[in-house]
Amino acid sequence: MLQDFQPEIKTFLIVVAVAVVLSVGGILLLRGLSPAPAPSPEPEVVDMSTWQTYHNDEFGFEVKYPSGFIFKELNRVADGDLGLRQREFAVSIANESEGVSAIFSVRAFDSSQGWCTGDFFEKGGFVHVDGVMKEKCLEPEFGGIEQEVYSVILGQHNGLYVDFLCNKIDSFACDQILSTFRFVDKEKGALKILSPNGGEVLRTGEVHKITWEADNVEDAYLNLVNGGKEFGILAVVPAEQGHYEWTVPDMSGWIESGLQSDNFKIFISNNSATNDVRDYSDATFTIVK
Predict the structure, then answer these.
(1) What b/e sequence results for 138-174 when a residue is b if at least 16 CB atoms lie within 10 Å of its CB, and e otherwise?
(2) Closest CA to 162 of 84, 90, 74
(3) Over its length of 289 residues, how does the chain's per-residue pLDDT go in tens digits?
(4) 10 Å Cβ neighbour count for 200?
(5) Helix (H, G, I), strand (E, B) or coil at 75
(6) Entry pTM
(7) Where in the chain is CATH 3.40.1000?
(8) How far apart are CA 264 and CA 283, in angstroms?
(9) Do 191 and 279 form a contact (C-beta atoms < 8 A)?
(10) Burial of 183 per CB tally in 10 Å (0-12, 13-18, 19+)
């Protein structure tokens, strides 16, 4: 009986095979006819070669801005700005013709606490800042009035917090300015004693001009030392002054008690507490009566 059905089975198998071939061919044909996905748009490249650079050592940040924008340093605000609590310092970057205004604010508290909460705020979009993607907080409405403000929390540096505010949600200029922001470490200064720098013989009562070189240091603290002993601060003067008229003291009592008369040095520093920038006379000098 099986032999009676063999023609029908063969016919069925042929039909199935043809159907499979047509289906696969159709799929391949459709794929071949489908349009290729559109390439992602290239990000707009902005020429920043003519931009100005603002560098702030005190608060530790740097930002660039177009030369056509108006830049201002803003004073400390105690009563809050745009709904935020007091700030220690701020800079404003604006272009009146484009209606764009941006503010970088430095605060002594964590400005991310309570940030972007409430019915009038919503998170939306990101911006690239100093190698990190930062989220934007949009303020589309406040008090029934339509707004275009967005803010970004930039982070903490040297115990202070920095945030950014732009008055236009879709401002390309704000995004580009913000992308140049970076935290920087304070540039360390330098001090170098020039005289007395070793080998001098100084006499009690005479006036010797202590001289030094200074770079990026506000004040110079001068000390007389002998071995591990300091004799107190001789003077505190503006570092850029570069010299101090020093009346050589009478050290005979210390010398009689065992101190070496030929083992003196001048020690200079930028701060009597930290001494993070300092220098000594390269070699010892002598004090005689």
Answers:
(1) bbeeeeeeeeebbbbbbbebeebbbbbbbbbbebebb
(2) 90
(3) 444 545 555 555 554 455 555 554 555 444 554 455 444 444 456 788 899 999 988 888 999 999 889 999 987 665 444 444 578 899 999 998 888 899 999 988 887 777 787 776 788 788 888 888 888 888 766 555 566 788 999 998 888 899 999 988 778 889 999 999 999 887 778 999 999 999 999 999 999 999 999 988 889 999 999 988 889 899 999 999 999 999 999 999 999 988 999 999 999 998 866 667 899 999 999 999 8
(4) 15
(5) coil
(6) 0.54
(7) 52-183
(8) 9
(9) yes
(10) middle
Q: Is 239 exposed, middle or buried (0-12, 13-18, 19+ CB in 10 A)?
A: buried
Is the preceding peptide bond at 196 cis, omega within 30 degrees of 0?
Answer: yes
Is domain 52-183 classified as CATH 2.40.10?
no
CA atoms of 43 and 209, how far apart (whole Å): 61
Residue with tokens 């604006």: 94
User: Topology of domain 190-288, per CATH?
Assistant: Immunoglobulin-like (2.60.40)
* Region(s) of the chain under CATH 2.60.40.10: 190-288
Under a CB-based contact definition with an 8 Å cutoff, are residues 149 and 82 in contact?
Answer: yes
- SS3 state at 93: strand
Query: How many Cβ atoms from other residues are within 10 Å of residue 217's Cβ?
Result: 20
At 117, which amino acid appears?
Answer: T
